[in-house]
Amino acid sequence: MEKLLKRETVIPFLTILISVLIYLILKKIIKRLFIIRKIEDKRRSTIISVFTNIIKYGIIIFCALIILDTLGVDTKTIIASLGIVGLVIGMSFQDIIRDFIAGMFIIMENQYVVGDHVTIGGFKGKVVSFGLKTTKVLSYEGELKTIPNRYVDQSSNHSIEYPTMTLDIPFPTNYDIEKTKKLLKRACEKTNKELSDIIIGEIKLVGIQTMTNFIIEYRIRVQTKLFKDELVKDYLFSNIKEELNKHESELNG
Hints:
The structure is a single chain. With 253 residues, this protein is α+β, with helices and mostly antiparallel strands. The chain contains six helices and eight strands; from the N terminus they run ααααββββββαββα. The chain has helices spanning 2-36, 41-70, 75-92, 94-108, 177-194, 229-251; strands at 117-120, 123-130, 134-138, 144-148, 155-157, 164-172, 199-211, 215-224.
């Protein structure tokens, strides 16, 4: 009788102790793993929280089954029952489970974070909220869309780096090449000053891109802030037109 009591006391105690130690060791390993990978703080915290919770509840269930088995409870029946219940729950909440799994992959693959500008399923906007079940995107027209993570099979992240716009400007072949280049440089410089807050670096005249019997195309390249390319293009073309109106007579020959 004493041996039985001792067994029913010692085994649960050792099980709990070992389980706590395993949990703490695994938690430390996970933290170190994601620190080494140099993941951003927000994303790292989310990943660590998800993984440690999965481990914690897994260890609690495993620990409970061992203790119940020690106390003489038929754990095989419980495991079988849990399997049936889990199957029913899984079938009932399969969409939620799919959202959760998709959310995990979004985090792990670093597809986007809150604040990024994205396109998801043709809907373009800024990510204002992200959870393991849904992603909320605010469009530039003010429409807020809640997208279940299971539908984020394809997404475009526009915030990874600033977009580069390339323009090929055609001029007649009878225009003096050096004078045309000077005209384009003046237009670029003026646009740089006018839009210095949205242009990254400066607008650059790359040089001649193509030449035919009728036209010469001069390539201009500029890096802009997100979704500001059309504005820069409008200003640049206006300045080129202004320069042409002033100096077109000088370009012939």
